[in-house]
């Protein structure tokens, strides 16, 4: 069975094509800057050189058409025809309380995803466009949706309720959902395998630090708590998102700066975080480079980012009354030697001893980067949300056949 995995973001669409016989990747790629002046398509077939193409791609339907063109191209394609694709799996950021696992796309499922637009305005509408585009371009192909929120659905009330009037939960389902669940599930499971220990015996803190960033406290292989909340804005400082701030700032700023709801939402989601403090970029590579060149704002951004991450790790170690494994993953977590070093050197009281040489080594493998005497195992585990999405898609479609 061949499975196409689509991860549609607000202005981008990432894809991977799997042959599920051996879980090999036949091609992968991404469409960036959808709806902007020049969109970039980068396509990487498994055994042919990468192809880049710049053109105008105004919406996700056109983006899916471009992906199909790339996948079936006579020179750099991976398929003779799209008929070879048996199923499509989508990452969906918000599944609310309704979706506790992955499901086949039906009219009712689509209606439910639409009802959740309010809770993830940056993400869910884009995912829906991805689903519609596949329906239009690949009629009859079964689709499966895999939710970022599903893995965190085991959180207890003490973690997921906010201390605000209970009627708001009953009426509007205002609660913590948590996100990046597929990634937290994948890396915690992989870490236990690498350590050769049963997952349900370990207390873990998983740090998914990408453009969006979240931490999770994983006990007995389940989420006890996680830093993102009702939306992916809460928690850690991120590339362009503020993370935790005093909620009173919102009405105060709206009043003083005469901002609308949309404007204040956009300020906190798109114009805050590392971008706002550094004044340079939301990209950790550019901020680290500027910091190393002596830029004080970049240093402040890096210091705030790592300080806030340290506080969450400490809080989750306290929440679980201990920590056995600390895991770094996603773009920044997997690649930033400086971030891991700064964070780990500041929380040695937890029994963390980083091996500086192992930390500096580059590898695509899941690995331990703490010293043998370190009480807590520190690990880098490259995430693979797409593989879990492909696996769920495969098993759900197979079962339905
Ligand atoms: N070599 C690197 N060093 C430091 N940061 C990196 C490196 N490579 C990628 N990153 C960071 O990873 C981030 C993207 O992470 P990723 O997990 O791909 O994010 P998302 O899936 O949310 O778009 C970039 O913003 C960049 O800051
Ligand atoms: C949920 C979320 O923040 O996703 P991403 O990191 O892909 O933006
Ligand atoms: Mg991501």
TrEMBL record:
EC number(s) given by UniProt: 2.7.2.1
Pathway given in the UniProt record: Metabolic intermediate biosynthesis; acetyl-CoA biosynthesis; acetyl-CoA from acetate: step 1/2
Annotated InterPro entries: Ac/propionate_kinase, Aliphatic_acid_kin_short-chain, Aliphatic_acid_kinase_CS, ATPase_NBD
Active-site residues, as the UniProt record annotates them: 148 (proton donor/acceptor)
Residues marked Transition state stabilizer (site): 180, 241
Keyword Metal-binding: yes
Principal location listed in the UniProt entry: cytoplasm
Cell compartments where the protein resides: Cytoplasm
Biological-process GO terms, alphabetical: acetate metabolic process; acetyl-CoA biosynthetic process
Cofactor entry: Mg(2+); Mn(2+)
Catalytic activity: acetate + ATP = acetyl phosphate + ADP
GO MF annotations in UniProt: acetate kinase activity; ATP binding; magnesium ion binding
GO cellular component terms listed in the entry, alphabetical order: cytoplasm
Chain positions recorded as ATP binding sites: 14, 208-212, 283-285, 331-335
Free-text cofactor note: Mg(2+). Can also accept Mn(2+).
Amino acids binding substrate: 91
Protein keywords: ATP-binding, Cytoplasm, Kinase, Magnesium, Metal-binding, Nucleotide-binding, Transferase
Superkingdom field: Bacteria
Protein residues bound to Mg(2+): 7, 385
Subunit structure: Homodimer.
HAMAP family named in the record: Acetate_kinase
Family from the record: Belongs to the acetokinase family.
Function of the molecule: Catalyzes the formation of acetyl phosphate from acetate and ATP. Can also catalyze the reverse reaction.
Protein name stated in the entry: Acetate kinase
UniProt source species: Paenibacillus nanensis
């Amino acid at each position: 069975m061949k499975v196409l995995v689509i991860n549609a973001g607000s202005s981008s669409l990432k894809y991977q094509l799997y042959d599920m016989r051996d879980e090999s990747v036949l091609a992968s790629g991404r469409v960036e800057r959808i709806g902007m002046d020049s969109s970039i398509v980068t396509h990487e077939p498994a055994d042919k050189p990468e192809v880049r193409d710049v053109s105008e791609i105004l919406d996700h339907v056109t983006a899916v058409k471009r992906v199909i063109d790339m996948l079936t191209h006579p020179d750099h394609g991976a398929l003779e025809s799209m008929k070879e694709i048996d199923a499509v799996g989508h990452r969906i950021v918000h599944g609310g309380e309704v979706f506790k696992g992955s499901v086949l796309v039906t009219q009712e499922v689509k209606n439910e995803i639409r009802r959740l637009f309010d809770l993830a305005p940056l993400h869910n509408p884009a995912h829906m466009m991805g689903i519609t585009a596949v329906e239009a371009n690949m009629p009859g192909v079964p689709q499966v949706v895999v939710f970022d929120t599903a893995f965190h659905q085991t959180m207890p009330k003490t973690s997921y309720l906010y201390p605000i009037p209970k009627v708001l939960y009953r009426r509007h389902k205002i609660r913590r959902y948590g996100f990046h669940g597929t990634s937290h599930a994948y890396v915690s499971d992989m870490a236990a395998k690498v350590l050769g220990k049963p997952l349900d015996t370990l207390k873990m803190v998983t740090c998914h630090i990408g453009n969006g960033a979240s931490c999770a406290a994983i006990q007995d292989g389940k989420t006890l708590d996680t830093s993102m909340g009702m939306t992916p804005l809460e928690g850690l400082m991120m590339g362009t998102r503020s993370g935790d701030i005093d909620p009173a700032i919102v009405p105060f700023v709206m009043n003083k700066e005469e901002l609308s709801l949309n404007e204040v939402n956009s300020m906190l989601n798109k114009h805050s975080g590392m971008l706002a403090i550094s004044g340079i970029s939301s990209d950790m590579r550019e901020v680290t480079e500027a910091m190393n060149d002596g830029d004080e704002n970049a240093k402040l951004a890096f210091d705030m980012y790592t300080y806030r991450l340290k506080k969450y790790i400490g809080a989750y170690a306290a929440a679980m009354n201990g920590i056995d494994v600390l895991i770094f993953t996603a773009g920044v977590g997997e690649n930033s030697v400086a971030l891991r070093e700064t964070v780990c050197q500041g929380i040695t009281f937890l029994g963390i001893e980083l091996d500086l040489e192992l930390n500096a080594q580059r590898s695509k493998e899941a690995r331990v980067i703490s010293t043998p005497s370190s009480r807590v195992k520190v690990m880098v585990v490259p995430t693979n949300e797409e593989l879990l999405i492909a696996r769920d898609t495969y098993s759900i479609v197979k079962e339905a056949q």
